[in-house]
Design a protein that fits this description.
This protein is mainly α. Helices cover 74% and strands 0% of the residues. Helix 1 runs parallel beside helix 4 and helix 3 runs parallel beside helix 5.
């Protein structure tokens, strides 16, 4: 529908969130090692994440769960030429919800805030896939 690559910018923005989280994880792990709270050998098999970096580690794992459906959906929508202002908007809603969800997760970790933020991104992804199904069924 659109003759642009606008659908890819939310994917790029999400990739940068993952890069930021990897940086935060490394920084928190190093701080734990430097402070002497953690033996660096603990990371050889990484069977237990230190408390200092646990929230970032958990959030980083979250970026490879629902977001995989988001990324696949964005690519499929683009390939099928089903992208439009609504799907681009849904993609941005997903990414913004992931940034805010990540912020809450790695700071206060308040579930009462995290869950609604997750649900916003979840709904945006469901709507994107729903649109793709409708597009394919009617094209």
């Amino acid at each position: 529908m659109t003759d642009t690559t606008a659908m890819f910018w939310p994917m790029i923005a999400h990739a940068f969130l993952v890069f930021i989280l990897y940086y935060m994880l490394s920084k928190r792990r190093m701080a734990a090692v430097v402070s002497g709270d953690v033996d660096p050998r603990q990371f050889k098999e990484n069977l237990a994440e230190p408390a200092e970096s646990l929230l970032v580690h958990n959030n980083l794992k979250n970026q490879f769960e629902l977001p995989m459906l988001f990324h696949a959906g964005v690519v499929a929508i683009f390939i099928c030429n089903a992208d439009n202002i609504i799907t681009i908007g849904l993609a941005w809603i997903f990414v913004i919800s992931r940034y805010v969800h990540s912020y809450v997760h790695v700071t206060s970790n308040r579930l009462l805030l995290r869950r609604p933020l997750f649900m916003v991104g979840f709904l945006a992804t469901v709507l994107m896939w729903g649109w793709l199904a409708i597009w394919l069924a009617t094209s």
